[in-house]
Amino acid sequence: MVVVCRQLRYPKAWPAEPAQEKGIDVALTVDFVPLACEDAYDVGTLLSPDTDLVPVLETVRDLGAHVEVASWKGTSRLRFPDSQCHYLDAEDHGACRDHTDYTAI
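Above: the chain sequence. Below: its structure as tokens.
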């Protein structure tokens, strides 16, 4: 596994407004599409409300992978045809939490 990190962008109102990591959506795309080309997964699941990622989902679907979207309960969701949204809660988050310290690898 490779952890991808990007620089944080600090808004003028920081710290009242949180910093945001920029470029992660592009990094995700760089992995998501080639892995679909390699037939590395049967189902691609994207946990994001970012509508900029719809073309990525369309590409992966057109390559033959099944696409699903997920969102945290109580937040907006990404709408994608032929895909139901899986709403996750705190219990779901805890069940799949990875406790690995990737900074030690």
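Helices lie at 24-37, 54-62, 90-95.
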